Amino acid sequence: RRSSSLYTCAFSSALRTSRGRRGIIECSGKRPDIYIVTYLKTFNHEKEAVWRSSRCLYRLVPSRGSDSTTSNTEVGRVIISNAAITTSPEVNGQNQTSATLSCNLTNPTFPVKGHYWTNNGKIIDKSETNSDELYIEHEIKKVDYHSAGLYACVFLTEPQVNATIEVKVPPHVVAYKRSENANEKDKAVLTCMSQGYPLPTDWTWYKLKDDESVETAIVNGSDVKYEMKNTPNKTMLYVKDLDINSDMGMYQCQGTNQMGSHSDKIQLRVRSQLAALWPFLGIVAEVIILIAIIFIYEKRRKPDEINDDDDSGSAPLKSNAATNHKDKNVRQRNSN
Q1: What b-and-e string marks burial along 70-88, b requiring 16 or more CB atoms within 10 Å of the CB?
Q2: Residue 129: DSSP 8-state
Q3: Residue 169 has pLDDT above 70, yes or no
Q4: Can you give the residue ranges of the Ig-like domain (predicted)?
Q5: What is the Cα–Cα distance from 59 to 39, expressed in whole angstroms?
């Protein structure tokens, strides 16, 4: 809606701030109100003030020939402008694989100098333009937990105006670790994360049977063995005083929002309290076996070595005797 010349108003400036001028707006037939001026310009030595109230934009245009007698008062007409943005409906990821978001700006107070799109507060790449178009679109090629979020179209005018569009999908839940190992009598922590928009409003944990059917629904506070700590994007299940027979197995975490539910699984492995001794016992066993092999080898090798030593010692004796005998015969022949 747009209307003008509704009231004769006076702007009484009290002080200047970093955001503009703070003052009192007095209009005939209305009680005085205090506003922050967000825009101030001079046209032909006449001042035009702009301020906001709720969703409306007010513009004080000086009246020609006003009989204002004080320097800090401006008398004029007030123009109430209600700039509006019509958006496309919110996107439901349950039945849409792609979507086109649109915004249509009506009744802008000042010309549009450009526009852009944001997703969860961040400017979308290549969406900024200097176009003065009042109708803009943004295409989402695939609606999933990556593209879901709070989108906003922003028009660069005075003042800047924007509107939001929600793209909603069921939560995407993933286990932080596929398996978790812990020792008997200790405490295990199982963690699941969620992505997408909106984040889960409810988290549930289940203990599964061997065939992965639900054995137990874990309710926070119902058993001293279990404790759940939840945030919108994360859930943690604490399993206390682990028992190797009853606690080991598969667990399931499930996140739910207004669009649906999604779950993931974590394998919990519980080690015996003696598990820490097995590596040490294994090393001791290897050392014992190695010593036994060396001992047996040495026992079997010694008799063979003794026989070899006897054989090698007798051979030189025979050789020496034969040599001496030959030398003796030579000497006898020479004497003859």
Answers
A1: eeeebbbbbbbbebebebb
A2: B
A3: yes
A4: 93-166, 171-269
A5: 9
